[in-house]
Design goal:
Strand order of the largest sheet: 1-2-3-4
Shape: elongated
Structural class: mainly beta
Number of helices: 0
Low-confidence stretches: none
Order of helices and strands: EEEE
Length: 65
């Protein structure tokens, strides 16, 4: 059994996306969480939903999530 999973990566830079939310929440002087969600015209494989998203939790300048 392998713990390594290989996924196809798709970059569709010409896809028209609509920004739904982009928020940064400061949690401490050196930590914040940020989320961004877009609606895309077609699901981005392997997803079956019409959203693309980004989530980050940064502490001391290092992304830990």
């Amino acid at each position: 059994m392998s713990l390594t999973t290989f996924l196809d990566v798709v970059n569709m830079s010409n896809m028209k996306a609509i920004s739904l939310i982009r928020r940064r929440v400061v949690l401490a002087p050196d930590a914040f969480a940020e989320i961004a969600v877009w609606r895309v015209p077609e699901p981005v494989p392997p997803s079956e939903h019409p959203f693309k998203y980004r989530l980050a939790y940064v502490v001391g300048g290092e992304c830990v999530l």
